[in-house]
Amino acid sequence: MPPWLQLMLDSLVPLLWAALVFTIPLTLLSFALGLALGLVTAVVRLFGPRPLSAIARFYVWVIRGTPLLVQLFVIFYGLPSLGILLDAFPAALIGFTLNVGAYTSEIIRAVIASVPRGQWEAAYSIGMSWSQAMRRTILPQASRVAVPPLSNTFISLVKDTSLAAAVTVPELFQTAQRIVATTYEPLILYIEAALIYLALSSVLSALQVRLEKRFARYGGFLEART
């Protein structure tokens, strides 16, 4: 067996373990929390009072206008100067959540605004409150439109978690870096890490296609009934 292949086989288990224990949980938690934050931010920007809407716009402006790596450094390395000490994983989770929240808020805001005004009026005409109209009428229609961009955001987040290595989270990429430090084979190890990211992204892309087809059928059913 070639030495490079043996090295890849020997390092496969620790790399997959790092992906399972750190990369995937960090991705799922960041996306779930970021999506919730994005929904709140989008609703505040669309329907909230002007002061809260201004705060939401400022948050989105700052996060979208600065690099994610800088945001992680500010949280993990900068906040200790203010007496705020965070472990690596929580710091990365906060950074990714804030970043995802800003980007998903723009997606959600756009898809909510794309729902025709007549849908609001129809919901109000049958006695729904604003919250009921949002939950039962607006969000179900908006979610169908939001699936592709939100899925792309999720897939990008899987790859972006490699930046957590910069704040010492022992995820997939940092595990590869640690193995490189002992084997002195950066090309082989980084290619192997890239292949694992590629495999994860490919699986998620396939799931995205299936999800889009399902929502397309659901949308066609609704249009047929209307």
From TrEMBL:
UniProt keyword annotation of Cell membrane present: yes
The keyword Transmembrane belongs to this UniProt entry's keyword annotation: yes
Keywords of the record: Amino-acid transport, Cell membrane, Membrane, Transmembrane, Transmembrane helix, Transport
Domain called ABC transmembrane type-1: residue spans: 16-208
Entry's localization field: Cell inner membrane; Cell membrane
Pfam families in the cross-refs: BPD_transp_1
Membrane-crossing residue ranges in chain numbering: 15-46, 58-79, 187-207
Membrane association type: Multi-pass membrane protein
Main location per the UniProt record: membrane
PROSITE patterns reported in the protein's UniProt record: ABC_TM1
Annotated family: Belongs to the binding-protein-dependent transport system permease family. HisMQ subfamily.
Stated name of the protein: Amino acid ABC transporter permease
